């Protein structure tokens, strides 16, 4: 009943280009000409003079899956060329393939698996990878593969090689659901798909390890969590989503951690959902979320 | 510095019509053909089959103010006719003319006057009307006319006649900023512009008078406020905006009233701002807020 | 790491009585005399003249479990008598025994089971009872008994008799985690423990069935959920906790239901936690939450 | 109607001391013995072993104002000595005397003046001091003195000397309502009363100048404000209150500033109110807010 609409014949066109006159008209004319009907359209410009334009267009087009290559080619010729446009054309019925990395903590992982089972997240989960064996049973109960790849200080690159072997050609996105290892720049380059992390603070406050302890020490009255794309610079990648919860002087670090877990799982699930719906566009080190 | 952008040459086209193929394309083509450039576009459909389609398009078109009649005529012929469309074409540089009604309570009124002075609200305030003299000095300090029209049980229709005389041809919107009198159906029909009211509860909870007392009696843990268009059915009009604030068993009715005042002024100011930016469209007894 | 503190030797004394001078002093003197040390103390009065006074006192007292009967007797003689006081004395190390009722929807149930497994909720769950078989596997994997008691129109009292047989002497609280059957007044009287329900609206708005449809029809801008004690009057019992989430015109009923599920599970989990920590006191048809 | 209760005969006793057995009992016994009745009592301990204990007790005691010196002496002998306690005894009917510093921006200043006029804030405002003349008329219409003390780079200490002359013996608190000058350590020492500042970010994020620009550059999805006590270390003092508001990629810095202003004024007003009600206790570089 709740299943996210994955009707066939729904396409999404995500574009970005230097802002200029007539883009919306050109896109909508082309879609109409191709026989499509626009269902949703969001756009954003950083400024008409020298700014950049971003647009997400969702349209219904009978037989889209079959005509996809032809349509992609048409978009390339008629829009991407003339407007110096980058674009992505996706089929809303084709779920993203998402690998989840976890360690010992279960709240973010379970929330994703459970929402996936309910049909809230338009994705497939080919595998969960963990550096610990603890969560295996929890994951297998959802009918999902669990691979335990131990990571020690001296075998990190071997572990990452194993990760890459598991992932190669099988995933469109990697999600770090409280995975407590830092990914190397080499891994990020090799894996060649976006990686989303959940940081347990309201970034850029409390960068690095132990944010709840730092929050307690600083005496903040709200704690938060941040979902962001992973880049080489730890905790500095483009932010997708954030949220906070009110705390008091009486909450110790364990209680902050407990409250924080609720925020973390909510924020990460929203970020993953939006990414899988092609709603998130990177603009340098920030994101546009349509 | 903060002044809401009221650059010239910005137009807004608000449309609604039965949903059908090609509306977005037709609108954007026409705007491009007229020499306009789309800045923002929001749309919503209640369903392709038998549903209704709503769109708000903001576009830059040099010389819009001078060409307005011609453009309106073109929209009528090329869009409104073929698509069975209702539409409104407005000049973003032309502020709405807003009359505010108040009684003795100042928080909603002062918040509107102060935001107006800061340039946050794209509107003019030709007059404040009150059934009490109390707030006259506060209003005049903002350089705004204050008319005291006493309302007693037996002179209500005379008072409303006086209201209509003051308002006729001078306003595009009436805002009830905690005005403690009920407007008659005759007044609503005669005034012939939208009327926005702030109700001091999270409607549809606690309809009618004394909502904070009712909230205390029921023991709710959140109290709220609701801005809505006024219709003949008291507290039943289309809701524009709502918000809530957390309260506890320890808060008495006076404290609820105090907390509630903050929510009321925030909610009403947002609703008025959105209305004046042509973001709010009525759809039967609900609203679409773009 | 997260386990809720269930250290031994922590007692909670919950009292209510007509407000009068010297109650706080009398309670704290007695606790000191008994060898206890107050850790936390909350109190609330509805008014000194003719009002009612409520207090929750948490204190550390070595050997409390062994001395409990003696202490209870002392409180009865020294406090309850003189102050016309109702009181409850509980051992913080003794978890409440909680039966959960569910139907087919899993979100509230699973959230309670997860939090329970993480040690967030100071309770035991002797049994989950459902009128459907659907959630059996989900529950059993937590090592918790699942009893399927079908309820049809014509066997309702037989079903309730079966419920009572299962529950008798085994539970301190019943939680309705989206249990879609109405409990009879007879059941409520017989079960003789508090019953907490989660209603999927911001009560008192949208009482009864189908609140998300009603919310859509009324066009509200926030939806909510309410945890309350069950009384004979449906949806009218004392409210323990409420929360809301922002929605828009673009959300259909399925989406409201999805958003609402997150609010429901959060609100119910908080209410159950607070109840199990003896933080919630009924005061006629409202609650005091310390 | 809304006026904050300033009934006579209400006293507040704020204490802090090494945690140890029997403090609550000792305090409540003494108050009972003096003829007082406890109305509200909050306490917090950082830990029984080697921790620190804090308590705020509000009690009704007929003739408190007349007996104040005697009672203060009794508290000193019977509590402060034996428990190595720091304490403060205040008369709830005696409003705090608060000087407000402002620059050119009006939102925080006006919000305090409005709330003060409505009787929401238990304080007097002997003077508003500004380094600019702009807000003089706004302030004087509330019947409050406005002193313009220009501050240039080379006359800062002269200006601060003038500030001190104005303030000496006349104030219990200084509030910086978006005052855009840094106070010198010498001033802070000389003024010898607490100073509350509002910082326009969610500290510790975006320390220093231009936080909304920094927030835009970092692409955060929430912006916030922080009220804190001023210390020698800029933006590092104990946090009293914080709040946030959701923003999007589409909001430019001017819009963030506008949204932020609403959060700033709400947060500062709450912090000032709580301080004036003796609810805020400093504990090293954090605060306890009862």
From TrEMBL, chains A, B, C, D:
<dbReference type="InterPro" id="IPR004810">
    <property type="entry name" value="PurU"/>
</dbReference>
<feature type="active site">
    <location>
        <position position="235"/>
    </location>
</feature>
<dbReference type="GO" id="GO:0006730">
    <property type="term" value="P:one-carbon metabolic process"/>
</dbReference>
<keyword id="KW-0378">Hydrolase</keyword>
<keyword id="KW-0554">One-carbon metabolism</keyword>
<comment type="pathway">
    <text>Purine metabolism; IMP biosynthesis via de novo pathway; formate from 10-formyl-5,6,7,8-tetrahydrofolate: step 1/1.</text>
</comment>
<dbReference type="GO" id="GO:0006189">
    <property type="term" value="P:'de novo' IMP biosynthetic process"/>
</dbReference>
<keyword id="KW-0658">Purine biosynthesis</keyword>
<dbReference type="InterPro" id="IPR045865">
    <property type="entry name" value="ACT-like_dom_sf"/>
</dbReference>
<dbReference type="InterPro" id="IPR044074">
    <property type="entry name" value="PurU_ACT"/>
</dbReference>
<comment type="similarity">
    <text>Belongs to the PurU family.</text>
</comment>
<comment type="function">
    <text>Catalyzes the hydrolysis of 10-formyltetrahydrofolate (formyl-FH4) to formate and tetrahydrofolate (FH4).</text>
</comment>
<dbReference type="InterPro" id="IPR036477">
    <property type="entry name" value="Formyl_transf_N_sf"/>
</dbReference>
<dbReference type="GO" id="GO:0008864">
    <property type="term" value="F:formyltetrahydrofolate deformylase activity"/>
</dbReference>
<dbReference type="Pfam" id="PF00551">
    <property type="entry name" value="Formyl_trans_N"/>
</dbReference>
<feature type="domain" description="ACT">
    <location>
        <begin position="12"/>
        <end position="94"/>
    </location>
</feature>
<protein>
    <recommendedName>
        <fullName>Formyltetrahydrofolate deformylase</fullName>
        <ecNumber>3.5.1.10</ecNumber>
    </recommendedName>
</protein>
<dbReference type="InterPro" id="IPR002376">
    <property type="entry name" value="Formyl_transf_N"/>
</dbReference>
<dbReference type="InterPro" id="IPR002912">
    <property type="entry name" value="ACT_dom"/>
</dbReference>
<dbReference type="Pfam" id="PF01842">
    <property type="entry name" value="ACT"/>
</dbReference>
<dbReference type="InterPro" id="IPR041729">
    <property type="entry name" value="Formyl-FH4-Hydrolase_C"/>
</dbReference>
């Amino acid at each position: 009943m709740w299943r996210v609409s994955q009707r066939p014949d729904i396409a999404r066109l995500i574009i970005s280009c230097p802002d200029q006159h007539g883009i919306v008209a050109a896109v909508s004319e082309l879609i109409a000409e191709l026989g499509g009907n626009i269902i949703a359209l969001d756009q954003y410009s950083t400024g008409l003079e020298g700014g950049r334009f971003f647009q997400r267009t969702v349209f219904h087009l009978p037989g889209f899956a079959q005509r996809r290559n032809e349509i992609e080619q048409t978009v390339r010729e008629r829009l991407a060329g003339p407007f110096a446009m980058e674009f992505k054309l996706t089929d809303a019925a084709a779920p993203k393939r998402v690998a989840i990395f976890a360690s010992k903590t279960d709240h973010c992982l379970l929330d994703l698996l459970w929402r996936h089972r309910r049909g809230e997240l338009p994705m497939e989960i080919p595998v969960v990878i963990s550096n610990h064996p603890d969560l295996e049973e929890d994951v297998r109960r959802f009918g999902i593969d669990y691979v335990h790849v131990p990571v020690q200080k001296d075998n990190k690159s071997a572990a990452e090689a194993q990760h890459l072997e598991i992932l190669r050609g099988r995933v469109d996105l990697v999600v770090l659901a409280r995975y407590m290892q830092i990914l190397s720049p080499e891994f990020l380059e090799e894996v060649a798909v976006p990686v989303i992390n959940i940081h347990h603070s309201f970034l850029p406050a409390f960068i690095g390890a132990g944010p709840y302890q730092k929050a307690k020490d600083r005496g903040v009255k709200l704690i938060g969590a941040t979902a962001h794309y992973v880049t080489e610079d730890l905790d500095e990648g483009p932010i997708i989503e954030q949220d906070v919860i009110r705390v008091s002087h009486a909450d110790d670090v364990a209680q902050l951690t407990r409250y924080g877990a609720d925020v973390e799982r909510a924020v990460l699930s929203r970020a993953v959902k939006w990414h899988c719906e092609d709603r998130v566009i990177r603009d340098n080190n920030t994101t546009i979320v349509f």
